[in-house]
Each structure stands twice: as C-alpha cells, then as structure tokens.
Amino acid sequence: MKKLFFLSLFISLLSASYLTNKSCSECHENIYEEYQTSYHSKTYFNDELHRKVANQASSEDNYDCSTCHMPSAMDQKMFASGVKKPDQTKQRQKDAISCFYCHQIAYVKKAHLKNKIILTRQVEGYKPTIYGSLNNPQDSDKHTMTHSPIYDKYACSGCHSHKRNKHDVLIFDAMGDKQDSKGCIKCHMPLVDGKIEKMDKMSRLKHHDHSFAGIHDETMRQKGLDIKITVQKKSLHVELQNKTPHPLIIQVARVKYLVLKIKRGGKIIWKNYKKSPLEDKQGTFEINFLGKDGKPVIIPAFAYKRGFVNNIKAKESKILKYNTPDLKKGDIIIASMYVILAKPSCWKLLNLEDSRLKKPMLLKSISYTIKGN
User: In this structure, is residue 345 part of a structural domain?
Assistant: First the structure.
C-alpha cells in the first residue's frame, strides 16, 4: 500500500503544472522584458553557436547539453541517449533557461563531472511554490512565493560551476569550490529600480536585474579588466588585471586578445603582430583541446586533454613583455583588449552565419604618452 502511495505521489510530482515564461510576463512584465534580452532566453532553436556545437558533439544526435541549456524540458535521459531530439513545438523546450525552472531550485548537489540541480517538490492540484530572494514575498493566483537563503547560495552553481566531458577533461570552469551564487547575483543581477507589478499594483523600490549582463554588455566588459603600461627605452610591459571572480576565459569558444600599437607623428611605427593579433601568443587568451591522437579538436566533447591554454585566474594579473623600437618623447602607446564570441577555428567547422559571433568587441582600451627622452 505504501509503495502505491509513493508511486502515485511521484507521478503527481512529475505532472505538476508548468508556468511558461509568457505566463510569468502577465504579472512581471518588466522583469520578463529584461529576461528576453538575456542569454538565459537563448536556446537550441535561437542560438546558432550552441545549436551547431551540440549537433557536432555526437554522431547519434544526443543532446546532453539540455540539462543546462534546456532544463525545463521533460525526458532529459532521452535527450542524453539520443532517443529524443529538441522539438520546437514543445513550450518547455522553447522557454530555454526558464523563469519557472530557476525559481524552483532548492539545492545543488556537487558532483565531479557537473553539479546536479535539485528542484523543490511540486504536487499536482496545488499552486507551485516559487523560490526567490525577496524578504516579504507575496503569493499570486498562479503560485505561492517563499524567501530562500538556499536559493541565494546555490541558484547559479548548478550550471555555472564546472563541466567535464566523458573523457574527464575540464571544458568549463567558472566558479571556485568556495564560491556561491551570492557573488554571481551581486555582479550579474544588480538591484535596479523597481516597477509596478500588474498583479496587485505593488510598487517595489528595487528588483534584481534579469538581463543577466555579461560579455554582451559594454559596461560590464569594461568593469572586468584593467590595463597598465610601463616603459623603458626599448621595452614595453603591459599588465592585465582580471578583476572578476572567475577566470578571464570561461567559454571555450571565445578568444580574447591584445592589440598593441605605437604611434609617432600620427603614424603607426610598431605593432605586436604582422597580419593578425592572434599571432601574439602571450597576448592571446584562449583554451584549446587535443584529441586522442594529439591533434587539435574544436568541439570540447571530443577532447582527451587540454592543448594550448593562456588564461588569467580570478582576481589575478599577468605582465606581458615586449621588445620595441627606441621610444621617444611624444610617442603614443595604445593597448586594447578585444573578445570574439566564436574564435576563427570555430567559423569554418561550424559554418557560422551570425556575424555577431565573429565580430570583435572591445573590452577596454588605454593610451600612454611618452613624456621623457
């Protein structure tokens, strides 16, 4: 009898009502608009880079990326085994990293390959419970609401901590063992002016920004890096300080690189490269992988070990040294750091069409004028 009871309860838990992103927008219109500009709203269907990497990652078309990139979808095991494929007619899948999913996180279990997210238990026939950081949350006709200190601590660490592939190679590393989600929320979800909620015309003074500003935001890009220049007569030192609480390079498709120029009388007399700034290996920050045969591989799922890696750890600095022509009074040194969302090695393999993935974006640029002889 007990077994039948728990079985029926388990079935009820699985079939509990799902609140779509659109249904959330009916009350939280402004937060929904913020979310729509974020990369949490991107999914297999509208993110070309993710879709093409996922398609390349398995000859059997399995989609084990779904646990983080499409977490609201049912049948995760069938995605991972290749029995089912992403289906654009399913709203749970189209909702990407959905409002309802993130606000159900009760706990995150640490694991070697990747962390496992534990959701709050929801029972059919009752309004679902939503977790958040409000001190005095209010219920609505769609859900109950509760403040959860656990949510503050673990909300991000399920997907944004680390990921190893099936060969035990670390392919994603964003959070240290002692870090929790509070730091992520403080930086990427700062408090912004509140808006009147439709459900009860309640005016909140502040709410957490749900645009999740990151590398795509110009202001955020500039906050994460400092550049300092020191010079001698034929020597130039560039200090790059990573001000973020995570490595300079997290997403392995990306590349960040330094462009150095010396101007004299309005003309460029020296650069740190001839044709491409990626020629300067000390100034090119990326993570590359090798296959079983020791040859480079582009898709991290196929990696057997790491290849060339140049990175800067959280809150650390790196000094790059360059030999230059004799520097004279009035010479202007320009140091600029850029990021490309998909590095050139990805372009040809994946046949990327979205030009935004290939376009360099400025992180920070400074200039230094030589004052002495």
Answer: yes
